[in-house]
Design a protein that fits this description.
- By secondary structure, the chain is mainly alpha-helical.
- The protein has one domain (about 1-210).
- The protein is about 50% helix and about 0% strand.
- It contains eight helices and no strands.
- It has helices at about 1-20, 30-40, 65-70, 95-100, 115-120, 125-150, 155-170, 180-200.
- Helix 2 (about 30-40) crosses helix 3.
Amino acid sequence: MLVLCFLHIRSSRFLAVERSWDRVYFGDGAQALWNHIKHHYNSADDKIYAHYAAILNSSGMGKSRTIDEMSKAHFVIPINLRGPNTQGMRFPSDVSFVLRHLSFIPGYPPPDHNVREFLTKSDSRITAYQRTCAFMKALFEDVLRVLIEEGLEGEEQPVIASRFRAMMTDGQQFGAPNKFRKDFYDKVIRDTTVILADLQVSSTVPKAQSFSFFEPCSHSIVF
């Protein structure tokens, strides 16, 4: 009976977290994040090495939820590289076994295992760099393809952002992302493999004909 009660409570905690993701977002954190990005972004400043920012806080404080909320109005491609068997907050080891395991929450939203395993293979520095560049190229091309297939060309950015966000998050659970998201990243990985194969072929032809990761796309992701 104690075991059944224990499992029921844990299941209820997981369900509560999943459902909370669809509740009304309180506070101005999402807007503050967007304002921060706009304030610091300067594409003309060649002294900036890379445009990225880290959001640091304790587990369960709302970092991922803030980004998710921002993605309802501003286009975001979510990738979660959390490691396997990771967890959220737990009670200290001197607290009873039951309380410690009731407190266990394995992190939410769920990680994209396929992407993490593909990008973190043990390889040389140059091979890892090439794989990452090829992945980014395939990712942007596949995102553009999905948006066109969904008939979003010509729509306002908030409409595009909100629709893509729903496609990537609706139905996600603690155990795994939704089917669309897993299938989407599986295809990105397959396309990345093709790009890398083309790169290997291009290394045997004259430089003027060789493949470049930095060829401009013929379309913009944000129409």
